[in-house]
Design brief:
The chain is of the alpha/beta class. It is globular, with a radius of gyration of 28 Å. Strand 17 and strand 18 form a beta hairpin. The protein contains 18 helices and 18 strands. It starts with a strand and ends with a helix. It has a six-stranded mixed beta sheet with strand order 5-6-7-3-8-9, sandwiched between helices. The chain has a six-stranded mixed beta sheet with strand order 14-15-16-12-17-18, sandwiched between helices. The protein has a three-stranded antiparallel beta sheet with strand order 2-1-4, covered by helices on one side. Helix 2 (84-92) runs parallel beside helix 5, helix 8 packs antiparallel against helix 18 and helix 11 runs parallel beside helix 13. The chain is 45% helix and 20% strand. The longest helix has 41 residues, at 518-558.
């Protein structure tokens, strides 16, 4: 296992902000790492440092002689008028057949491959860039928010590509489902420190919180012991007969130290508008046609939504999801048909790129005062600002100096402080980090109003959606199934397409056969049974280890002796390591 890239004792600052503080990390040749951290923590800066685009103030970067980095470009690398195939041949200097073969892995064919690449949507252009990456044969991929604005189908294709890519990858993403599907390890950047965890993002987040809670319990035990010793010392140090005991206790007190708890930036908590629950129809449309004078996007749309539903609008990019939302909120005139909101409905809207239209002369608090309910107190404004991580002097920052993520949070804060009983949200999770997206999902689950939204974040969609509306091939209709059912159907379509393509490749090879032999089938059955047996044994072991850990944690809460507490802490650490290994193996076998 070769180390492709190593960062040692790295120091990097931007003004007063310490981005890297003696940070260390190693990337090896066969591991895919999910890279997480709060907005503004410095993730993109670290990528630029590793790419050699920015310099460190201190420290060093050690690159393996065979290192070949593939970086997913965010800018437009295409020439006017060239096709995707032209671009791939120009960029990679590979022959046409090879470029076409790799492009096929991303379903690039026909007009998508041979038509003008600049005419493609952002998602299809991303597929072209990914094909270009693969043609350069990198052994380390660096992807910065690769799923932003990608539709579900393209995300699944990208996941399949990464799973089959048997080399290293460093992936920055706020999409928990995507990281879970593609990365076996997790790297976190927090307060200038890099922490590598040998497990997926879910277990890492659980481990991080358990570790902090454990440190809090140990600190509580240590502080209680410190107070006990301090009382004894103060009571006995002036007494000649007990002075030596007091002196001994003083030395013991000096040795007792609390653990510094490595907390992240303040936790995000959100609240949705406080509205009364309602019943009946909230929105209805009949024979609706949407689009533009020269482009009829969809027609014959008949929908009815009830108060309290959380409707997820799904479909590939370019099918018309945003056009539908714009029509619903009256920012785009329908071409035909009629639509109507229920009585007493007040709609609040969060649209793609809405944060770019903010009044840059306003401060954070100005914006919130302007957009909040008139009954909102200043204390409630400050509480919401703090929940969205605008604290102390930050509430007086001008909009013009805010980052994209900060502007998105500010727009969301203004919307949530209002009194809308219907929220229409177009990609609300873009530019929000993992913790903030999770807090938004939690707020919407508590909301008593109606939500109509679209998102490319599958974890968010799974948590929030109660019904699904599909936009596809010029039609819009209720999808009869939940979001997980829809996800399974898209995955099946992608799998079927890949099988068809692989069969064609197999049939084109002389003497090849795609049919498995009887021997192969029997071996597959044996492997399946063996895996199922191991899964059952692992589940029993995980349950036993969980129970042991729970009992040790209970002992930790009541333990007052520091030495005993440390022994318990060490036992818990060993259990956690064993648990992590069992859970990782269980996850591998669950996908068998």
């Amino acid at each position: 296992m070769a180390v492709l890239l190593q960062l040692r004792e790295a120091v990097k600052r931007y003004g007063d902000q310490v981005v890297l503080d003696n940070a260390d990390v190693s990337l090896v040749d066969d591991v895919k790492v999910g890279f997480i951290g709060r907005n503004g923590a410095g993730k993109s800066t670290l990528l630029r440092v590793l790419l050699g685009e920015e310099e460190l103030e201190q420290g060093e970067i050690i690159r393996h002689p065979s290192l070949r980095i593939g970086y997913l470009r965010q800018h437009d690398p295409f020439h006017a008028g060239e096709s995707a195939l032209d671009f791939l041949m120009r960029d990679s200097d590979q022959p046409e057949w090879r470029c076409g073969q790799v492009a096929g892995q991303f379903e690039l064919k026909g007009e998508y491959l041979e038509g003008p690449v600049k005419a493609l949507s952002g998602g299809w252009q991303t597929r072209v860039k990914l094909a270009a990456l693969l043609l350069h044969d990198p052994n380390l991929l660096m992807l910065d928010e690769p799923t932003n604005f990608l539709d579900l189908r393209t995300q699944i294709l990208l996941e399949h590509f990464l799973r089959e890519f048997n080399k290293a990858a460093l992936i920055v993403s706020h999409d928990r489902s995507f990281l879970k599907a593609t990365c076996s390890q997790t790297l976190e950047l927090s307060r200038g420190k890099l922490t590598m965890f040998s497990g997926k993002i879910g277990p890492f987040l659980e481990y991080r919180e358990e570790r902090r809670e454990h440190d809090r319990r140990v600190n509580a035990t240590v502080m209680a012991k410190q107070k006990q010793l301090q009382r004894f010392i103060e009571k006995n140090r002036a007494n000649a007969s007990t002075a030596s005991q007091a002196k001994s206790k003083a030395k013991q007190l000096e040795r007792l130290q609390t653990t510094e708890i490595q907390t992240d930036e303040p936790t995000v908590h959100m609240r949705a508008p406080r509205v009364d629950p309602r019943q009946g129809t909230v929105f209805r449309c009949n024979d609706l046609a949407i689009g533009y004078p020269d482009n009829r996007v969809a027609e014959n749309i008949t929908l009815e939504l009830e108060h309290g539903q959380r409707a997820a609008i799904v479909g590939d990019n370019g099918q018309g999801k945003t056009t539908l939302l714009r029509t619903i909120v009256d920012s785009l005139e329908p071409l035909d048909g009629d639509m109507k909101w229920g009585y007493g409905v007040e709609v609040g809207t969060y649209a793609q790129h809405v944060y770019t239209s903010l009044d840059e002369r306003h401060t954070v608090i100005d914006h919130l005062e302007y957009h909040s309910n008139q009954d909102t107190t200043r204390q409630e404004l400050l509480a919401m600002a703090g929940a969205l991580l605008f604290r102390d002097d930050q509430i007086n920052k001008k909009v013009k100096v805010l980052s994209g993520g900060e502007r998105a949070r500010l727009c969301m804060a203004g919307l949530l402080l209002g009194n809308a009983n219907v929220l229409v949200l177009d990609e609300p999770g873009n530019h929000l980090d993992v913790e903030t997206v999770e807090a938004l999902a939690e707020a919407l689950l508590q909301y008593k109003g109606t939500v109509i939204f679209t998102s490319h974040d599958r974890h968010f969609m799974h948590r929030v959606a109660t019904c699904v509306i599909e936009v596809r091939d010029g039609s819009v209709k209720n999808y009869f199934g939940d979001y997980d059912t829809y996800l399974e159907s898209v995955e099946k379509e992608v799998d079927d397409g890949e099988r068809e393509r692989n069969a064609k490749v197999g049939n084109s090879k002389a003497g090849s056969s795609s049919k498995p032999t009887g021997k192969d089938y029997r071996q597959n059955v044996r492997d399946q049974r063996k895996a199922e047996k191991e899964v059952k044994n692992l589940e029993k072991k995980i349950a036993r280890l969980d129970e042991e850990k729970r009992k040790l944690n209970e002992q930790m809460l009541t333990e007052t002796k520091p030495d005993a507490a440390m022994k318990l802490h060490e036992q818990i650490q060993e259990l956690e390591k064993e648990l992590a290994g069992c859970e990782e193996r269980w996850l591998e076998l669950s996908d068998f």
